[in-house]
Amino acid sequence: MLGVAMRLLRRRALAEEAVHDTFVQIWLKAASFDPSRGQARTWLYAILRNRALNILRDESRTDLVDDFGPMDLKAPGDDAETTVMRLSDSGALKRCLERLDPVRRRAILLAYVEGLSHGELAGRLGVPLGTAKSWIRRALLVLKECMA
């Protein structure tokens, strides 16, 4: 859900707020879910999408920052590998990312820099969904250990 919110809102703090608000709404309106109208997952993501769009419509949030460009590590047109190259050479994150197998590093970057879901990641990399999920999980464990 966070990946979807990130793609819509482009700012992690706002995306996290949207996901939080979504779960609060799900909790409050759980009784209104009607399985005959569709799957629960569809209902959940519709609530998230509506909350994210409401945040985007809220113009008072846009005056918090004059220029959104410097906040993004990713420049338009960059691929995931170019984003890693833009990290500081002395940074722990870059050092740890470079330790990963190139395929798993790409999976992590696509998921966390571009906000792809596991399903989108599997489609982009041409691997089964379970493989994409395990790559992400194992790579995160390696990164966690390396960063500690």
TrEMBL record:
Family affiliation: Belongs to the sigma-70 factor family. ECF subfamily.
BP-aspect Gene Ontology terms: DNA-templated transcription initiation
Organism: Microvirga tunisiensis
Keyword field contains Transcription: yes
Domain RNA polymerase sigma-70 region: 2-62
Span of domain RNA polymerase sigma factor 70 region 4 type: 92-140
Domain of life assignment: Bacteria
Name by which UniProt lists this protein: Sigma-70 family RNA polymerase sigma factor
Pfam families noted in UniProt: Sigma70_r2 (PF04542), Sigma70_r4_2 (PF08281)
Gene Ontology MF annotations: DNA binding; sigma factor activity
Cross-referenced CDD domains: Sigma70_r4 (cd06171)
Record keywords, A-Z: Sigma factor, Transcription, Transcription regulation
SUPFAM superfamilies noted in UniProt: Sigma2 domain of RNA polymerase sigma factors, Sigma3 and sigma4 domains of RNA polymerase sigma factors
Gene3D superfamilies membership: 1.10.1740.10, Winged helix-like DNA-binding domain superfamily/Winged helix DNA-binding domain
